[in-house]
Amino acid sequence: MPNSADRGRRTREQLIDAAAQLVGEVGWGAVTTRLVAERAGVNPALVHYHFSSVSDLLSTAALQFATRILAESADAVRAVAPAEGVERIFADLARFTGTDPESLLLAEAFLAAHRLPALRDGLSALVVDFRARIADWLRAAGVPDADAVALLLSASIDGLVLHRALDPSVDFGVVAGPLRRLVGG
């Protein structure tokens, strides 16, 4: 039988998962304590027991998701040549339609970050770390101007997901070739 600490961690994770799903469905500003509690199957009072506010919960959900996605992308390329790494990044990116719940969570988080300094600081740290990891990978492979190329690559990823949200016909494969050439493949 799980102890109270285990139940508390499980409840906290249920709340985070529910919040992340709801942002993609109803938007950041429409997520309420009641909606999160209903989705998580818990008493609404538990939302405020685990989080100081709904914004805190949503920020936690967005940062947790962004941390995982960026780490997965950086790790996926670590052991391969840059040209193959670009292919892997764009193949993985294909799962983001721009209108799927994960894409919407990130887009909403970027917008909310302008109003929530702690979220902005958290996302900024994640993005800086991702670029540094990509630059290190490129530098190790002998790519000139690795920091600048890492910035271009990461900004391209963000921009392409946003473009696909507006135009579902955007094909990430179209830019893979030019980006492969940029990294020397």
Q: Describe it for me?
A:
The protein has 185 residues and is mostly helical. The chain has a single domain (53-182), classed as Tetracycline Repressor, domain 2, CATH 1.10.357.10. The chain is built from 9 helices and no strands. The protein has helices spanning 4-26, 33-40, 45-50, 54-77, 82-93, 101-112, 117-140, 146-166, 173-182. Helix 1 (4-26) packs across helix 2 (33-40). The termini are far apart. The model has no long low-confidence stretch (mean pLDDT 91).
What is the correct CATH architecture?
Answer: Orthogonal Bundle
Using DSSP, what is the number of strands?
0
Domain module count = 1
- Helices, by number, come to 9
Write the layout of secondary structure elements.
Elements: H1 4-26, H2 33-40, H3 45-50, H4 54-77, H5 82-93, H6 101-112, H7 117-140, H8 146-166, H9 173-182
Helix pairs in contact: 1-2, 1-4, 1-6, 4-6, 4-7, 5-9, 7-8
Compact overview of the structure:
With 185 residues, the protein is an all-alpha fold. The protein is 76% helix and 0% strand.
